[in-house]
Specification:
By secondary structure, the protein is an alpha/beta fold. The chain is built from six helices and ten strands, in the order ββββαβαβββααβαβα. Helix 2 crosses helix 6.
């Protein structure tokens, strides 16, 4: 049990399909949890009660429904110039976290329910982005909105480019279609920002990283599952020394 007087605190992001929790000890990230929205009553606050919490919600579940005393962050709290008013708070937090840790220019590739790319230019200003259906969402849409196509999991290995069955044709579309999107947009980003870096995050990060390894120099990109948490940490304590650490992911 952690006492309320300790240096522990929560960061919390309520997404479209999951709740993302991080337990910090001061500036050190101690543990994370990624839980289904259907299990709102089962969360780390039961094991660590009465801790302060900073967070935001981008889905249909309000932040205070999950943690009534949480400090709700808004887009106005994030000091990135030129953001548009309806930019998702999750994208903004991840971009702010990337700027703190990796500098500018930077492109955040977030593989969640939606696949998003979010850019900051060399001056640390918001420089636009793109939103696609996530890979899992594309697979689900084919199954839900057609009469005969099955639902398939995201392929873990490169499928045949030209499918000779319904299954391999869908797998090819998911795999090579997503690769083509990343190749096109990241190619444009690096052409405009030769010193830039791409940071891959989100639930589909392992799949997206596997694609990037097939065509992108490893010096041009890296993986970081905690960008939004770094963003929240920087807003909570703007003068703190930047620290990046690895934690066990549940």
């Amino acid at each position: 049990m952690v006492s309320p007087q300790s240096n522990h605190w929560f960061a919390l992001i309520i997404g479209n399909s999951r709740q993302h929790w991080a337990l910090f000890t001061g500036e050190h990230l101690s543990r994370t949890w990624h839980l289904p929205l259907e299990e709102l009553a089962v969360n780390p606050a039961q094991a660590y009660p009465n801790l302060p919490c900073w967070g935001a919600s981008v889905g249909s579940v309000p932040l205070h429904q999950v943690y009534p005393s949480a400090i709700a962050l808004t887009l106005e709290d994030i000091p990135i110039p030129r953001m548009y008013p309806t930019l998702g708070i999750d994208r903004a937090l991840a971009l702010w976290g990337a700027l703190q840790v990796y500098g500018a220019p930077v492109c955040v590739v977030d593989g969640g329910t939606a696949l998003t790319l979010t850019l900051a230019n060399e001056r640390g200003e918001f420089a636009g982005g793109v939103i696609f259906p996530g890979v899992g969402l594309m697979a689900r849409a084919l199954a839900d909105y057609t009469a005969a196509l099955p639902w398939l999991a995201i392929p873990t290995e490169p499928p045949p480019r030209w499918g000779t069955t319904t299954t391999t044709a869908i797998e090819s579309g998911l795999y090579y279609g997503t690769a083509a999107v990343l190749h096109s947009y990241l190619g444009a980003f690096f052409q405009e920002s030769p010193q830039g870096k791409a940071i891959v995050t989100g639930g589909d990060r392992p799949f997206l990283s596997g694609l990037l390894r097939t065509f992108l120099d490893p010096d041009r990109w890296c993986e970081d599952d905690h960008l939004a948490f770094w963003g929240i940490r920087a807003l909570r304590n703007p003068t703190a020394k930047i620290e990046v650490n690895s934690v066990h992911l549940d």
